[in-house]
Amino acid sequence: MVRSAFGLLEMEVEGTPSSEIPSRHQTTLGQDLRWTVSRLAVTTSLLEFAATQDLPLEGKVDAIIHDEAVVYYASHFVRDGAEVWRDASIPNPLRAESFNIDGILIPWPSAASLPTIATDQEFRADLAAEGVPLDENGRVVLLIQGEVLHAFRMYGDSVSKVTIVGPDLAADRLGEDHRSLSERKVAVIGCGSLGSKVAVSLARSGVGNFLLVDDDVLLAGNFVRHDLDWRDIVTHKADGVARRVQLVNPTARTDVRRQRLGGQESSGNLEGLIEVISQCDLIVDATSSAEAFNYLCAAAETGRKAMIWAEIHGGGIGGLIARHRPGIEPGPALMRRVIENWCAEKGIVNERPERSYEDRNAGIPWVADDADVSVIAAHASRFAIDLLIPRSPSIFPRSAYFIGLAEGWLYSEPFHTEPVDVGLASQVVTEQNGLDAAEVAAERARVIEILGRSFGETPSTR
Fold first, then answer.
1. Interatomic CA distance for residues 430 and 297, integer angstroms
2. Cβ(178)–Cβ(389) under 8 Å?
3. Digit-coded pLDDT (tens) for 325-357
4. Cα–Cα–Cα angle for 300, 301, 307, nearest 5°?
5. Which one, of 453, 452, 394, lies nearest residue 424 by Cα?
6. Which of 216, 223, 193 is nearest to 372 (CA)?
7. Predicted pLDDT of residue 429
8. Which H or E run includes 160?
9. Per-residue pLDDT band at 366 (split at 50, 70, 90)
């Protein structure tokens, strides 16, 4: 502070223009907005559109009311009753939560002073003098002066200036290799705590298309670890996750299926669902359900698509993440057997849960807090991004990892990680992992039986 004061005093010498002397310390955007209530969130799309206009345009401005501020954003503008611009960077779910207000965009002469806001009569008079008379209705007025945007809120007999908050012009926060993710489609099966976090993380990373599958409904008890909140209470989780995905990535497209793999669904619905899943670039199993896993193995092997699955151990002690890449790793069903044999060789039992760790229909839920689930979800998301880009070689030398979050079971301490070598698709899995020919045949027959149930035919065993 003393050094700063000395620097300012040192500049106050005779002959130095006052305009060259800093009047105050540099402040952050947060400091500047600390005491402002009305704010306009300006997007690049709005600035580019407004700068090209030479006539006033009527439209709509939406408002979101918070305890500390009212935030406005331009929604759309029309000319002669036809829409000429809509901000595609605004998520549709946000529009549903906002208040709709009349707005007008007015090109303002560069040499003209801004209208006075002392009274609404003076404000209207200044606008009328520039050929833009307004009626008595309240509205948000946007003036574009060259490349500079100004905003005013007319309400009742008062006019107030709205603080402009420009777009974030920072460099791309994602790497160049993430650009291709906008064309990828990911099927997330299970939109509970784990699946919701994976889906939102992938949306933030730039994934542009999602198939979201879950028949369950969000209840208040889910909030301890689910990515959704009270805005989605008693709605289907898949619908809520779709809205959340679009809120963080407005250009993302979502396909919602309120169905359960392995549940009481008609054979026709099940067949159609598996076919749609098999067409996605990546399948994510976040169900912790053995039956759902079996169906997804069928979808992955039929469509020759990559698959990731993740599980949380009961008590939040850790979790498992695994990936299958067609032609690189063995099929996911065989990988599961390899992982189980790996555990058996260490003298421990890897018991796959027969239900989701948060399934309320199964009695007392397993204990795992949000931090536990978030760690496993983050690792699964990194696996997914590595697959979708795709990186070659992969940054992950193994395709299955046990990740410890507490001491116990096979973990000697928190963050103890055990990679599992599942072999390669070209290798003889029976020799490397202790499976005899009968076990391999039984595994193959099980997958074939699943395919037959799902698609109404028996595939060739060749």
1. 19
2. yes
3. 999 999 999 999 999 999 999 888 775 544 454
4. 30
5. 394
6. 193
7. 43
8. strand 158-165
9. low
Residue with tokens 């002669």: 80
Domains and CATH numbers, the chain: 34-165 (3.40.140), 176-354+366-455 (3.40.50.720)
Q: What length does the chain have? A: 462
Quick check: 358 pLDDT over 60?
no
The per-residue pLDDT for range 234-254, each reduced to its tens digit, is: 999 999 999 999 999 999 999
Q: What is the 3-state secondary structure (H, E, C) of 280-309?
A: CCEEEECCCCHHHHHHHHHHHHHHCCEEEE
Rounded CA separation 376/417 (Å): 12
Residue 193, token pair as written in the block:
């705590």
Torsion of CA 35, 39, 42, 47, to 10 degrees: -100
Number of other CB atoms surrounding residue 316 within 10 Å? 21
- Whether omega before 390 lies within 30 degrees of 0, making that bond cis, reads yes
Amino acid at 174: L
Question: What is the Cα–Cα distance from 193 to 44, expressed in whole angstroms?
Answer: 34
Which of 335, 262, 325, 332 has the alpha carbon at shortest distance from 297? 332
Write the pLDDT tens digit of every residue in 303-325. 999 999 999 988 889 999 999 99
Rounded Cα distance between 86 and 77, Å, is: 7
